[in-house]
Amino acid sequence: MRISMDLELQDTPGQLIYVLTPVSDLGGNVMSVVHHHDKKTFRNTVPVSVIFDVEEHKLEELQKRLEKNGVTVVRIGKMRLRARTHILLIGHIIHTDLRHTIDEIDGTGFAEVQDLSLSMPAIDGPSSAVVTIMATGNEELKKAVEILKDIAQRKDLLVIVPIDESGISGGLSNAE
Amino acid sequence: MQNSTSVFKLSIIGFGAVGQGVAKVVQNVPQLKVVAIADSKGVALMPDLEDVLARKRAGQPIANSDLTALDVIRTVEHDVVVEVTPTNIDDGEPGLTHVREALKNKRNVVTSNKGPLVAAFSELTHLARTQGVALRYEATVGGAMPIINLIRDTLAGARVLGIRGVLNGTCNYILTRMAEEALDYDQVLSEAQDMGIAEADPTYDVTGIDTACKVVILANAFFDRNATFADVNVTGIDRITQDALQLARQRGFVVKLIGDVQELTVSPKLIPLRHPLNVSGTLNAASILTDTAGEITVAGKGAGSIETASAILSDVLSIMRSRD
Question: Considering the domain B151-301 in this protein, what is its CATH number?
Fold first, then answer.
């Protein structure tokens, strides 16, 4: 499960290790760490946002270990992927290592491949797939789609993306 | 200057499906008089339209003079040259010379031929302006579907922020049939060729070239881009599989070949089933985004002899009225 956690760390060097070690010891995988130095608290602590994957039943133990390390846990959120899109891929999808394509999206920390349906009519013919990508927001989704397009171009896959419904080629940004 | 009760004289240069369609529709307008028709073999001067159409149908020559198409354009007195020879995107010829000569001789031009406009848009529009005559080309984009005059006249005053659409009936027919009947690309293409919807060499349509030409014309007309065919990033429909269309359908999408004028791109896109650009069969559709009128979508028949002729007729009539 993907977790986003807001923490407070002492504003001295070397504090992050008290966060990363317990996560890692419990088999978690850290995706993103952001220090909000500009939002220092009156307690002289720095807010830090961490995003990581960890098994849900280990969350309670993790929280205990963090607090034992002197880390203040302000908020724990199960991350919600709000933005979703579908993308069609056509070409030699299997031969070009599908796993790698999915890993690159999942590795972003803000987007993941939620679903993939594949149709493979003949072993030497082109396959078709529809990939469903979810991301934490629209901007993140756009980035994930760009990553996929980039990979597909390198692998000579035809990528078909949905028409932009927010307007014509970004033209709406100028309009009301 | 002629007065409004006088006849308005036109020549038809090119007498294929579109030219014959023009000869049919102008008969409904008493003020219009066809003074010459040129096909690839010769020129019929002061033709009897019924007779010429019958001859063409029977495969007989229509010529009754020694003149060439260029002779007609240069020397026969008339108001509008209707240039409807086939599109040649390599150098725009012979249409480009026809249009250029017509404008030099201060004749208005109405055309359905994309070649000259893709090859030399700014030269021709500049020439028309300096000569004080009109160059109109509604029929080059979307056949009977109004788009150029819609934007220019009806939406006058609104700033166009973007235009995108389904601009090739052949591609749309193939994609629609593949999706609805679960047929393979090759099979539907052969079927379309049998029905005369696709050419024997379908490259021009299915690889997106035709759509790209329309994108170039609209970009030059409304975004002042001075774009040429080489500026358009083009992906066709020839790699699309029936499986892909079924997968898309399961997620609530169809696939359409979309020309995006502002982006200068042509590529297949996923279109939600309820989206206004989801038109089926050979239909064309275009959405125009403006600053004041919001988004406007039109749809209509993108090809066909009489349909294309209707767009030409509307251009001819609007030139005739502006002279009054």
Answer: 3.30.360.10
